[in-house]
Specification:
By secondary structure, the chain is α+β, with helices and mostly antiparallel strands. The chain folds into three domains: 2-312, Distorted Sandwich (Beta-galactosidase, Chain A, domain 5); 329-628, Aldolase class I (TIM Barrel), CATH 3.20.20; 633-756, Golgi alpha-mannosidase II (Immunoglobulin-like, Sandwich), CATH 2.60.40. Helix content is 19%, strand content 30%. It has 15 helices and 38 strands. Strands 6, 7, 8, 9, 11, 12, 14, 15, 19 and 20 form a ten-stranded antiparallel β-sheet that branches. Bound molecules: (2R,3S,4R,5S)-2-(hydroxymethyl)piperidine-3,4,5-triol. Residues 333, 363-364, 408, 474, 476, 522, 524-525, 541, 544 line the site of (2R,3S,4R,5S)-2-(hydroxymethyl)piperidine-3,4,5-triol.
Length: 757
Amino acid sequence: MIEERKGWFFISTRHSSYIMRISPTGHIEHIHYGGYIPSSAEGIGQIQGPDDIRLGDGTYYDEDHQHTFLSRMLQEYSVPGKGDTRESALIAEYRNGLITLDFIYHSHRIYSGKDYAILPQVSGDGADTLELTLRDTVLPVYLVLRYTSYEEEDVILRSAEIWNEMDDEVLLRTVSSMMLDLPDSEWDLMTFDGAWARERNEYRRPLAPGVVYVDSKLGFSSCEHNSLVFLLRPDADDSHGEAIAINQIYSGNHQERVEVSPFGLVRVIASINPFGFGWKLGKGESFRSPEAVLSYSCSGLDKLSASLHRFAERYIVRSQYGQMDRPIAINNWEATYFDFTEEKIMKLAATAASVGIELFVLDDGWFGRRTNDTRGLGDWTVNRSKLPEGLSGYADKIHSLGMKAGIWVEPEMVSMDSELYEKHPEWMIAIPGRRPSAGRHQYILDLSRADVIEYLFQSMSSVFSSGIDYVKWDANRNMSDYFTSSPDARFQGELFHRYIQGLYSLLDRLTSAFPDILFEFCSSGGNRYDLGALAFSPQGWVSDDTDAMERMRIQNGTLRGYPLSSMSNHVTASPNHQNLRRTGLEDRFGVACFGVLGYELDLNKLSDEELSVIKNQIAFYKAHRHTFQHGTFHHLPSSDGALFWAVESSDEMIILEYQERNGVNTGRHRRLRIPFADRDTVYSIERRGKHVFREDLGDLWKDYESVLHEPFSIRVSGAVLAEAGIALPPLFMGRGFEPATRVLMDNGADLYVVRKT
Ligand code: DGJ
């Protein structure tokens, strides 16, 4: 609900309130973001207190307002020049380098739904919007701040638009989606950072005076620093305490700034990265920022993540597959790399179909001159020596096995060794007269150009209309040599953002033209894991690193802001192709099934025993698929060196027990505790029967075999589960096998199914 009362604005969601007011000087002053306060609450005006503090050396607003120091006012969207020397949400240059502007209240509008368009178009069904229009005190320059509130999800969607009515041109240097000022700095900052193959690892540190920048300058949202940031109280954890999430719906260069001012005030700004950015606004023109998601939880991080997951699935993902169950894939990349023939992939597909896999994905190398990664990108015609009957022949053959047919594309890229480059060298991002830098021997097409977008729309349409059910959209290098030779280019500083606008317009057209295709985004693994990509592709390739141990960290960080249904996880070969770690087949599965399961290894090199294990895994996953893909994710208390994850749907909960290393002679039982179990319910808990391979036990196999192993299946009250937890069956620790002894290796995973009885 959104209300206005005597110049105060109240945005209320189920558990949160966002309150602002028009200050005596006309500025929009931030009053509160946190737990819910009714707008009628007595004494609400006392939150702010009167303007009666003088600062020793501060700049006050003007002689009529000697107590108004913008540097200590909590504001909604700051600009430089009138005393606030903290980070600015907007920097707009006009008349030869002037940057001072002063926005004060002009008008407002409250309405149901959401009637403004920004790609990707987030749904406003059932939401309410507040639009605050501000005007500079002198110049006809306007700022529109938009707040769309989603009550059930505790989410506020924010964006800003700047609009120039001056005769002079304005050059935008910094434009933010949102700014949030908070009155104290007792917060920790959590960010999600990494690099290729170790994306979105979680980092937490206390705030301290100064500014922290979290950003990407890679042209894409990047695996180096995700645009998701959390502020959490120092005592907050997965299940307790206050936490705020901020994320941008943007796939390009982003920046999140977190500042602690000399007065201990906190400012968080989420914007397009000012790095290399500039945008010209002529008279009558406006610029809309990307949208940002803001959410608050008073009950810890899991609750916050659950709100973000629900919001993403319901309002951001536009595909019909958003809330639907997704197929289990086999991808040929780590099975064959470039070395495949149709015969080879059909053999892989046939084995995959025989174990219950539902989708075959033909990865890189099926087109043009693409026999290795130095060539062929840009030529989206099938290579007949690999697929003699073309793409539709491939799709027909896959369909005849009862599977869906998927294909890999990397439309934004070009190889110099390609027909496309020979015809259109000017379509590549490069600076005339300078040798361009390369990444994986490839270059980026200039998606700010209308002719490039048209070419890609036509060439992708022809690929997608060949019986294709699924598309993996990859992008395997970062931007360099920033230059567009587009005849429409007005200013080179616009390239980064126009590229993303071009990408979104292309994806918008393609996903509308092919609504039945399931899209998966990918960028050297997880280099483009952001809400903008998710809007068009309901799932993404989380990382090229599929090792279970690494994946626990990567999936954990990803799940902080992105739903289970967005995470495509594959069981790959052991030793792992990224770090050579050997991990059991069942353990790889245990971690991979938290999200959308797939396989990516040569099934034809596996033994019958391994294939039958995979068949059982798939049957298990299918029986619980909806929970794994769309359940509510929780961290449970860890115990005895093991991590516990849970995913809960209306009729069951699946629990993962994961250990990095097996202990020896620990002398205690590991406990499983579910703090939120319903005390008045009796639960059944069953351990998934895992297969133990003879090779894993070596000489001990005989001892293991001689024991009749008991399945673990119990009934227990919710009160016990919530307050004390239960002892799990003992792990093998060098003292022989009893009927209850479990075998859990290093990097090991066990699964449990919990149901209310
Ligand atoms: C990078 C991706 O992350 C891989 O899964 C694979 O698709 C390769 N690109 C293909 O070039």
